[in-house]
Amino acid sequence: MKIDIRNVTHNYDVEVLHDLTFKLDGYTSVAIIGISGSGKSTLLRLMSGLETPTNGDIYIDDQHVLEPDYKKHIGFIFQHHNLFPHLSLEENITLVLEKTRGIDPVKAKETAHKYLSLLHLEDQVYKKPKNVSGGQAQRASIARALSVNPSTIFMDEPTASLDPILTFEVLSAVQELRGLGKNFVFVTHVLSFVRDFADYVIFMHDGKITEHGTPEILDHPKNQAFKDFMMKVK
User: What is d(CA 58, CA 67) in angstroms, rounded to the nearest whole number?
Assistant: First the structure.
């Protein structure tokens, strides 16, 4: 995966990201970490094309993230499962495939069952989100993201609303996806998952990337803000 961030600034009421420039090539699972308010989720949303930067440009695999075709090649997993509550797990997937990809109903149903089974939800297919556990609902949202066959999957703290047992359930499911040939960019507060799943780590502080490298940097932080962060989260 290639990441090319060029002079990106982003404002809400205040400036959240400050003139970020960053390039990365050759990694398949990139973790973005930092304290709340550091800008990590904002950067993830900009990289996925869900938001438009105030200034600057972002390219993923040489494609500008604001090009209409870009979103056809990504999947996004939110903090909360974001499933349609009135639809079954199956229908949450088939609706997306039929309406956004033009896939016929029979093929859409086959695809839904394929990915729900991959996430160990074959016995929950016809249930609505309210009738499954939080971990199962989040796994269904992962299945939905996979169903469109994205090259890159973005995950924004996918276990933020889950207890430790459900967190383990979801992250174990994500670990099983490693062999699918997808790229992952994710924000998480679970450092054990970063160590196990990421092959590159970006640490953000005050809207800037202040340290980055392979997961070994977690054991040898150089920047003071990163040292303070690791002291508090270990």
Answer: 11
